[in-house]
Design goal:
This protein has 170 residues and is α/β, with parallel strands linked by helices. The chain has six helices and eleven strands. The N terminus is likely disordered. This is Maturase K.
Length: 170
């Protein structure tokens, strides 16, 4: 892939004097309509990123607890679970292979991934549904999905939870 980058924000920002009421700006800040709009807002004014630190990228990969995200052929490394309030907006693909899921879910702002690939995973049914809401293409290798009582979720129930599924490799 392309070059490696660290995600960071630095420098001061000033509260802006908007031509709109602050309540409108706050709503726009907390509810961006699309990734494209969010990126334009952040590029035009760092106030938006400082107040709502969302990083939008196309792909999230995790193999053996080593996380990588990709944005327009660039690899962003060193995504860590720190006190940094970064939130992730995943737009295209998520691939998990032998990774802890709960810390990731707490960091996701929106998940629009249409491609999901799970390998060597143990997921709860709720985690599976969370990652599969928009999935059209699913890869499923040596992965078990369990109910809250510890029982394995039947295949039919998994398929019912994938309303947009077009193709699966099991």
């Amino acid at each position: 892939m392309g070059s490696s980058h660290h995600i960071y924000f630095s420098g001061p920002y000033r509260h802006q004097n908007w031509s709109f009421k602050n309540s409108y700006i706050d709503y726009i800040l907390k509810h961006p309509s699309s990734v494209k709009v969010w990126r334009k807002m952040v590029q035009s004014c760092k106030y938006f990123f400082a107040k709502n630190s969302i990083v939008a990228f196309e792909q999230l990969f995790c193999r053996n607890e080593k996380w990588r995200v990709y944005l327009r052929n660039q690899t962003l490394k060193d995504i860590r679970y720190t006190s940094n309030p970064l939130k992730f907006w995943i737009t295209a693909n998520i691939e998990l292979a032998n990774c802890s899921v709960p810390p990731l879910i707490s960091r996701i702002y929106k998940l629009n991934a249409r491609f999901s690939d799970f390998s060597e995973q143990m997921l709860s049914y709720n985690e599976f549904l969370y990652f599969s809401a928009n999935v059209a293409y699913l890869g499923f290798y040596n992965t078990i999905v369990k109910n809250d009582d510890g029982s394995i979720v039947p295949f039919e129930k998994l398929v019912e939870g994938l309303p947009k599924l077009k193709e699966a490799v099991l």
